Amino acid sequence: AFANTKSIEFDGVNDFLSAGTFTSFDGLDKFSVSMWCKIASGGGGYVLGKNRADSHWGNRFNFYIDEYKIEVNTAQLAFRNTSLSLGNNWISVIFVIDRTQGTILDRCKVYVNGSVIVNSQNSNFSQVVADSEPLTIGTRTTGTSSPSPHNAFEGHLDEVALFNIALSSSQASAIGSTTPTDLTGHTGLINWWRMGDGDTYPTIIDHQGSNNATMTNMASGDIVSDVPS
What we know:
Blueprint: E1 7-11, E2 16-21, E3 30-51, E4 59-65, E5 70-74, E6 76-81, E7 90-98, E8 108-112, E9 115-117, E10 134-137, E11 140-142, E12 148-150, E13 154-163, H1 169-176, E14 189-193, E15 203-204, E16 213-216, E17 223-224
Antiparallel strand pairs: 1-13, 1-17, 2-10, 2-16, 3-4, 3-7, 3-10, 3-13, 4-5, 5-6, 7-8, 8-9, 11-12, 13-14, 15-16
C-alpha cells in the first residue's frame, strides 16, 4: 500500500541530489514537473536544474521557488510570479510546459495546491537543448569544468516526479489538491523520486526511470519524517 512517511531536508548552502545525465526533456514541446515542498522561513531557492556545459551561468532549465516567487527558465524566462505568499507550509507545486499553446503566457503554467496561478512575465522560450550535464534536485549548478551549487534550496522536498506530457488542469488538481498520492502507472510519468520512502542513504531511488539520485554534501539525517498531511 502507498504510504508517504519521509521527505528530504535541504540546507540552502550546498545540499543537492545528483540524478545523472538526463536527456528526457531535450527537444520536447511538452513536459511537466511535480513536487511537494516546504519552504524554510526566509529560505527557498532552486528546486530543479540542468547545467549548460558550455556556459558558466547558463542552464538548460531551472525551476525556482521561495515564499514570494516562482520562476521557470528553459534558456529563456518561461514563468514568473513575484506576488505570492507561500509561507512555511507544505504545498504542492506543478510546472507544466506546453509550447504548442497559441498564447505565450499559456505555454508555461504553474499550479499551487492544484490551482493555477498567474504567469505575470515570460518570453517565447525555446525547447530544451540537448546536453549531457546531470539533473540536480535542490539546486541549479553553475560553471563549466566543475559546476557548483548556486542559490540552493532551503527547506523540504518530497515526491518529485517528471512527466513527458503537459499535465491537464484536472490531472494537476488530482495530484496536488490534497496530499501525495500513488503515481504508479500515471500517464506520461518518466521519473519519480519518493525522497526517502524506500531509500537508503545516500541513494534516492528513481521509482519510474533509471536516474537514481545521490545525496551530495548531505548526511543520512537529512532524510526526515516531516511530510505533507
